[in-house]
Amino acid sequence: MKFGYYPGCSLSGTAREFDESLKALASAVDLQLEEIPDWNCCGSTAAHNLSHLLSLALPARVLALAEQHGLNEILAPCSACYSRLINARHQLMADEELRKEVNDLIEMNFTGSAKVLNVLEALFKVFADESTVKVVKPFDHKVACYSGCLLVRPAKVVNFDRPEDPQAMDDLIRKFGATPIDWPHKVECCGAGLTMARTDLVCKLSQKIIESAEKRGAEAIVVACPMCHANLDMRRADIEAFAGKKYSIPVIYITQAIGLAMGLGEKQLGLNRHLVPVVFPEKTKAAPAAPEAQPAQKAEE
């Protein structure tokens, strides 16, 4: 199986461990990731706040490059990148005049032939065949699957999973031995790109997510978005100062959780790069049952 690969800026920098774990997983399941040559930034949150045309042109160029290289399915692991690519494709395919304007601007011919996949869609394709689900050590933990804002929204554009109570990540991680908890914060915002400008808001929103997961007994929060990971992991000290309490729950990528279950090493998966140590509670073994008391023998008469 082969996907066009768009790492975007975050997987090339601050979310390097997401890139490492995805590539380690790809090698383990014989998945080919062909990086789109000469890719550019998707614009993230900044472009569409400044210029609507720019917010379309940046992802359109990436999509046009993929088309030029014969890549029919593009994996965009970062939720923000996925959102920008799939939204731009949706808008441009619905407006021929706008598409022509953007094509003139990027001096390329975007046709919309390449489909954009998020990381969960790609992993479901990979593990559709149960023979590829090779569990060496089951990920036997209670986890809070956190999709965040962008992975399932807007529903009519992404057409993926349930927008208010997504189940895809839960279903996927069950294949590898985990037990997803039922919790109300699956798609609540963590503060997203406000992490620098409004750290106070990020702390307030992220603290609610972490508190909810810990309260319901989760041993880890599983994410599929570099921005969510940065806010819940990198901002942990700020969150704890805001809340006035400590939180030990680690935040890991879905690719890392699956990789651990498949027997891949922690360094291979980039777990050493996290600021919050990825440590799970020790499983308590049930005490052996006490031997049944033997009835006393009758004294001989």
Strand and helix layout:
Layout lengths: L1 E4 L2 H4 L4 H13 L3 E4 L8 H7 L1 H17 L4 E3 L3 H16 L1 H11 L8 E3 L1 H8 L15 E5 L8 H4 L9 H7 L4 E2 L18 H17 L4 E4 L2 H9 L1 H8 L7 E3 H8 L40
Helix pairs in contact: 2-13, 3-4, 4-5, 4-6, 5-6, 10-12
List keywords for this structure.
301 residues; alpha/beta; Rossmann fold; 2 domains; 4-stranded parallel β-sheet; disordered C terminus
In short:
The protein is of the alpha/beta class and 301 residues long. Helices cover 43% and strands 9% of the residues. The strands form two sheets. It has a four-stranded parallel β-sheet with strand order 2-1-3-4, with helices on both faces.
Rounded average pLDDT = 93
Please count the beta strands (DSSP E, at least 2 residues each). 8
- The Rg value, from CA coordinates, equals 23 Å
Question: Which percent bin holds the helix content?
Answer: 40-55%
Distance between the termini: 83 Å
- Beta fraction of the residues? 5-15%
CATH architecture group name of the largest domain: 3-Layer(aba) Sandwich
CATH first level of the largest domain = Alpha Beta
Number of helices: 13
CATH domain topology of the largest domain: Rossmann fold
**How many domains?**
2
Shape, principal axes of CA atoms = globular
The strand order across the widest sheet is: 2-1-3-4
How does the major sheet shape up? 4 strands, parallel
Can you tell me the residue ranges where pLDDT is under 50 for at least 5 consecutive residues?
Answer: 296-301
Query: What class, by secondary structure content?
Result: alpha/beta
